[in-house]
């Protein structure tokens, strides 16, 4: 049921098709995040209308509430949340390790207290896979340790656990699951250290996963460090398998990631900043709370064809934000997701027709993430 066909390349950028039981997944692709079986403030119908082809849900949160066995008994996550297209679940590892003092790591897994009620639970590689089998997503992830990326010895120890757990995950997946129904991806760790990343790739590639994720980035390193790590890591990953950069999704990061050979992205950013009153645009992020928009009759972004921009003014959206209306979250989430999903389609088209370097250079020349113009990426 799973196969990856590379349709075109343009430098390091790639366009492909990953076949899944719930249909083809054209790449490069951005997955909106539906942590608790819902993309916040956005209906599944609206996601389809936006052209979303992949969504992500979270193993840890769904295990805690409503419970993975309940989801299984309700027909699986696709039926539970009324999403009939490809779906991905993460392993829960990042959430467990972010609990800080509420968790304790050992060689075989992690014991932790629930963020909801303080009850004690334990995740092992086998447990994570069993939960993901119950949830039933098309793409599932190995249980890994996501360490602070700049502390070499901490990263080295985390890599050793991640590699051992990857083997345990694969064994459990083969033993109790259906590899033809769910594709298990390995997760490359190694922080910002080139040799540790290379060692992680070598170890995981030997296990022959159907796809590989790059984890442990966008968690404390600088943007230049992240991009350098991608430039060092992506070329040693198998060219015939999809490559997934976990938790990265700002517009400039998507362009820079595709330029370096990444196929799959996910991030909470577009809906999270929407709930804080911010809009993503092709020229950078804007804060809709600002007084300058109080009497502005223009749409959120000129030329945008999303529902929010086609029907409402900046003045109206600002009013909703200031009034704390739920519709503000909905409209800004629709706009932000529309932008990112449109960027992915445009980049795919540019790769297919051989114009991606020009596309990336023009986009980044006009985009201002922090008040400074982003530099165009080197494209091999």
Structure description:
- With 380 residues, the chain is an alpha/beta fold.
- It folds into two domains: 3-267, Alpha-Beta Barrel (TIM Barrel); 274-366, no CATH class.
- It has helices at 44-50, 59-64, 68-73, 77-80, 93-97, 125-135, 152-176, 194-205, 223-233, 251-259, 269-275, 307-311, 314-323, 326-352, 356-366, and strands at residues 3-10, 13-20, 23-27, 29-32, 55-57, 87-89, 103-106, 109-113, 120-123, 139-141, 183-188, 212-214, 243-245, 264-267, 278-281, 284-287.
- An eight-stranded parallel beta sheet has the order 4-14-13-12-11-10-6-5.
- Helix 8 (194-205) links the parallel strand 11 (183-188) and strand 12.
- It is globular and about 60 Å long.
> Which fold name is given in CATH as the topology of the largest domain?
TIM Barrel
Percent strand equals 15-25%
Which of globular, elongated, flat, extended, rod-shaped describes the shape?
A: globular
The order of strands across the largest sheet is 4-14-13-12-11-10-6-5
Give the class from helix and strand content and strand pairing: alpha/beta
CATH class of the largest domain: Alpha Beta
Helix run count: 15
Low-confidence stretches: 373-380
Profile the largest sheet: 8 strands, parallel
Rg measurement, Å: 20 Å
Distance between the termini: 32 Å
Tell me the number of structural domains.
Answer: 2
State the share of residues found in helices, binned by percent: 40-55%
- Look at the structure and name the CATH superfamily of the largest domain: Queuine tRNA-ribosyltransferase-like
- Average pLDDT, rounded to a whole number, is 95
**How many beta strands in the DSSP annotation?**
16
Do you know the CATH architecture of the largest domain?
Alpha-Beta Barrel
């Amino acid at each position: 049921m799973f196969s990856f066909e590379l349709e075109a390349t343009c430098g390091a950028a790639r366009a492909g098709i990953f076949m899944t039981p719930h249909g083809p997944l054209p790449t490069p692709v951005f997955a909106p995040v539906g942590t608790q079986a819902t993309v916040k403030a956005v209906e599944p119908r609206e996601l389809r209308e936006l052209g979303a082809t992949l969504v992500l849900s979270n193993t840890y949160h769904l295990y805690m509430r409503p419970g993975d066995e309940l989801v299984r008994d309700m027909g699986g996550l696709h039926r539970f949340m009324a999403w009939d297209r490809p779906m991905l679940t993460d392993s829960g590892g990042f959430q467990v390790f972010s609990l800080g003092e509420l968790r304790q790591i050992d060689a075989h897994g992690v014991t932790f207290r629930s963020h909801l009620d303080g009850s004690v639970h334990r995740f092992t590689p086998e447990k994570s896979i069993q939960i993901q089998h119950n949830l039933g997503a098309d793409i599932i992830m190995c249980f890994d340790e996501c360490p602070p990326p700049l502390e070499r010895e901490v990263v080295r120890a985390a890599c050793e656990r991640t590699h051992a757990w990857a083997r345990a995950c694969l064994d459990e997946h083969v033993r109790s699951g259906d590899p033809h129904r769910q594709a298990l991806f390995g997760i490359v760790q190694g922080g910002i250290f080139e040799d540790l990343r290379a060692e992680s790739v070598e170890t995981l590639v030997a296990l022959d996963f159907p796809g590989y994720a790059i984890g442990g980035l966008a968690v404390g390193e600088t943007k230049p460090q992240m991009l350098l790590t991608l430039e060092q890591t992506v070329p040693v990953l198998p060219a015939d398998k999809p490559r997934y950069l976990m938790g990265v999704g700002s517009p400039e990061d998507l362009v820079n990631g595709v330029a370096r050979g990444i196929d799959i992205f996910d991030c909470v950013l577009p809906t999270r900043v929407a709930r804080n009153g911010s809009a993503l645009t092709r020229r950078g992020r804007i804060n809709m709370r600002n007084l300058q928009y109080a009497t502005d009759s223009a749409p959120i972004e000129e030329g945008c064809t999303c529902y929010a921009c086609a029907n409402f003014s900046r003045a109206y959206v600002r009013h909703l934000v200031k009034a704390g209306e739920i519709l503000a979250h909905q409209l800004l989430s629709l706009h932000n997701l529309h932008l990112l999903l449109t960027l992915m389609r445009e980049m795919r088209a540019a790769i297919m027709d051989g114009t991606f370097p020009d596309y990336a250079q023009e986009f980044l020349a006009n985009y201002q993430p922090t008040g400074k113009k982003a530099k165009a990426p080197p494209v091999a």
